[in-house]
Amino acid sequence: MAEPRNERPLELRFRNVVRLGYVSLFTDISTEMILGALPSFIVRELGGTAAILGIIEGVAEAINYAFRVLAGVLTDRIGKRKPLVLLGYGLSSISKPFFAVASSWSHAFAVRVADRAGKGIRTSPRDALISDSAANSKAGTAFGLHRSLDQIGAIMGPVLAFVAIPVIGIRGVFWLSLVPAAIALFILLFFVRDTRGPVRRRSVFENARNVLNREFVMLLVVVGTFSLGAYNFSFILLKAGSLGVSEGYIQLVYASLNVATVMLGIPVGILADRVGKLPVLGLGYIVFLVTSAAGLLLTGNPLYAFLIAALYGSYLAVAETVQRAMIPDFVKSELKGTAYALYYTVIGLGSLAANSIFGALWSNVGPAAGFQYSIATATAGAIALIAFMMIRTR
Q1: pLDDT score of 206
Q2: How many domains does the chain have?
Q3: Contact in structure between 350 and 232 (CB atoms under 8 Å)
């Protein structure tokens, strides 16, 4: 049963963060058992191309972020978080095993969209629930802890897939993903407590106007500029293949990406709480630039794939932890869901553009053109962030 936030001691509320972390851990075991092999499965077995892969990922992520918007607004209007979180996790858990019966890339596209819709439904309410369960001064730590637990699952998933694929095949692994997903739903249903906030009866547009203060708008411009070139992990795995990593070992490249994220998630969150979130976010943007430069310049040695993956995982640890933790600093507590919705709208549109453009450049011009594009947009995002920080200190 939900309890009013103010009547619950901080240490009891923070347990919610840990429990949500375990939900994400088991969900990510389920998801990442699939995702490490999915790019190769779509391209080699289902007849897709790098351009098609980019479109699939771009559209799926755009739908993901569209549902984050709807769920973020709705969670503020009903004053509850957990029902939407449960619905989202449930949809993803049910949809992913259908990859096992896909016979064309269009079938995989439909399953990927359903999975990402589920992720979208749960994410804004879940982030608001994490924020509700931790003091603002500990938001970085809370999101860093959640991210690290999430990524532990993202390590275990590819390793389990690496062991299981030779025995039961990739389609068998798709069915096996149901087991950790069911464990996640059990923890969420019986151990995660809801938080109850004021019910917002105002219109969506009125809530959005109340959220869009000057500084929050500037933050969205910064994040949006950077996200225009922030390709997703699929292209890191395609780069690994082009460096000569065999299909059987792609899962280990993916695991190394997630190891980096786990190792840095909590330290990054603590650092952001101590020295400020914006400077730490700038560090994440720099790491992304280094990752893209490595993707552009490093060729010929399969071991480079693990270095590039570790760099990309480090970028994810910083950016995804800090950006989510920053949102409560710019908005009223009762409108966090709407704020996350607007934030994810910007990120989603950027993701659609980034993955579609990056995939098209990769297929039609070459991988180097894609990395050059992302270096340019990331540089613009870093400059915008510096300008924002200077304006805030005046």
Answers
A1: 54
A2: 1
A3: no
Rounded Cα distance between 227 and 58, Å, is 12
The CA distance from 343 to 339, in Å, is 6
Residue 303 lies in a domain: yes
Other beta carbons less than 10 A from residue 11's beta carbon = 7
1 located within any domain: no
Let me know if residue 2 belongs to a domain.
no
The boundaries of the domain holding residue 337 are 7-196+204-392
> Rounded distance, CA 205 to CA 352, Å?
24
- C-beta of residue 83 within 8 angstroms of C-beta of residue 188: no
Rounded CA gap, 186 and 126, in Å?
16
Bridge-based pairing state of the strands 3-4 and 195-196: parallel
The amino acid at residue 207 is N
- CA dist 318 and 282 (Å) reads 9
Q: What is the pLDDT of residue 32?
A: 81
User: What pLDDT, on a 0 to 100 scale, did the predictor assign at position 4?
Assistant: 42
Q: What is the CATH number of the domain that holds 363?
A: 1.20.1250.20
Is 35 a member of any domain? yes
User: Phi, psi (5° rounding) for residue 92?
Assistant: -65, -40
Contact (CB, 8 A) for 129 and 81: yes
Mean pLDDT by 10 residues, the chain (394 residues): 44 74 90 80 81 80 80 80 91 89 88 90 85 68 78 82 86 90 92 69 55 81 93 89 85 84 82 87 94 93 94 90 80 72 83 87 91 95 93 75
The closest of 187, 250, 349, 226 to 37, measured between CA atoms, is 250
